[in-house]
Design brief:
Strand order of the largest sheet: 1-2
Helix content: 55-70%
Shape: globular
Radius of gyration: 28 Å
Strand content: under 5%
Number of helices: 11
């Protein structure tokens, strides 16, 4: 079992603690939580309030910077959508429904790619060892210690983005069946980022970088896959390449979701915050608060993984013949599907008037060929119809 360095001024060489299995995670986490609960039976609101005032360090300049950056993300997205993303969708000749969703996916793809790349830099190209040795995130914590600048920058970027994302989910993004869960996810993520920064938890800010790294990679794959779903039918032509890429993206998305969010996340992050944190900082403030939020994040990851499994089952059983989208579940699509079911196109279900018009050729026209309507009555851009008299169209079908 790895131990934190001793405060004797000497640099000790630490052996990396091996990552536990699911059984060790459950037994040791439950034991640590139960022990912490028994030791905190006298804890109450007054103690929590005093601990908050003693440990939280958040200035008005921090709050103002957060608000400015959150507004900045919103303005930037609106500008990019209006002047780049929407014109790009029209240039690609996407279907109207796909063209309306494209700006959202492009925006998220660009942000998550940039933020995940920065997390990769911090975890693998600096002195930090949080990925290979998550318990090291808790070594040497002191009350009120400063957050390193490179990690503080990551927290400002991510925190302000999730502040923007809460507004975007309600007013800018397409509303889906799981949007309420997504909104809760953004609130929990923002709470984790804000409180860990406010408490100057060198430990939780360190772990936070690992959490963001494990989650952002899935968002990159999701938005990239959705873009290829939109691009496979453009200008009225089916594109095999984009269809193949979307299928591969779907498989890759499901695989990395399980590996990053349901394997690495609990075994690296939850074990470190539940077990290793108490070994390094026995009186760690707000232990239950942060672990509760992380467990809630785990439950949402499981919830979304069930969607992925259901999607794969439908594909394997033939209920779906192709990948339409990985996480669409649009409310609008559901309403359109229900409306289509209620109003089928078969003639024998139509009314008497509709059947009469069909018979007379009003609704069914053989003049449609290669997408062009040929009508001999059209001359010089004017439709001549003898039935038009005194400005009134006389038609038995009307």
């Amino acid at each position: 079992m790895g131990r934190p360095p001793q405060a004797d001024g000497n640099i000790s060489v630490m052996a990396v603690e091996p990552m536990p299995g699911y059984a060790d995670l459950i037994t040791r986490s439950c034991s640590a939580l139960l022990r912490a609960f028994n030791e905190c039976r006298g804890c109450g609101f007054e103690l929590s309030k005093r601990t908050l005032l003693e440990n939280a360090i958040l200035t008005w300049s921090d709050v103002l910077l957060f608000v400015v950056c959150a507004l900045g993300w919103t303005v930037l997205r609106l500008a990019l959508s209006a002047y780049i993303f929407r014109p790009l969708g029209h240039w690609c000749a996407l279907q109207p429904k796909d063209a309306s969703k494209m700006p959202e996916s492009v925006w998220k793809l660009l942000f998550y790619t940039a933020s995940w790349s920065y997390s990769v830099y911090l975890l693998f190209f600096t002195q930090y060892t949080f990925f290979h040795d998550p318990p090291s995130a808790f070594y040497g914590w002191k009350q009120g210690m400063a957050v390193p600048t490179d990690i503080a920058v990551a927290y400002l970027i991510q925190g302000s983005f999730y502040g923007h994302a809460i507004y975007a989910t309600l007013h800018m993004d397409t509303w889906r069946k799981d949007s309420a869960v997504m909104l809760l996810h953004h609130v929990i993520t923002l709470a984790l980022i804000a409180f860990s920064y406010a408490f100057r938890y060198h430990l939780f800010t360190n772990v936070g970088i690992l959490v963001l790294f494990l989650h952002d990679v899935n968002d990159i794959q999701l938005e990239f896959t959705k873009l290829n779903v939109y691009l496979k039918n453009r200008a009225g032509v089916y594109h095999l390449f984009n269809d193949l890429v979307s299928n591969l993206g779907c498989v890759s998305f499901g695989t990395t979701w399980f590996w990053c969010r349901l394997y690495w996340f609990p075994l690296k992050v939850l074990y470190a915050t539940c077990v290793s944190s108490l070994q390094s900082v026995p009186n760690i403030p707000f232990y239950f608060f942060f672990n509760t939020l992380l467990f809630a994040l785990t439950l949402m990851n499981i919830y979304w993984f069930l969607y992925i499994v259901l999607f794969v089952v439908k594909v394997l059983t033939g209920q779906m013949t192709e990948v339409n989208d990985v996480r669409e579940y649009d409310i609008e699509d559901s309403k359109e599907t229900a409306l289509h079911k209620k109003q089928p196109d078969r003639p024998h279900h139509n009314s008497w008037k509709e059947r009469t018009c069909l018979k007379n050729g009003t609704a069914k026209d053989k003049r449609l060929k290669n997408g062009i309507v040929k009508d001999k009555r059209l001359k010089n851009g004017i439709v001549k119809d003898k039935r038009l008299k005194n400005g009134i169209m006389k038609d038995k079908c009307l």
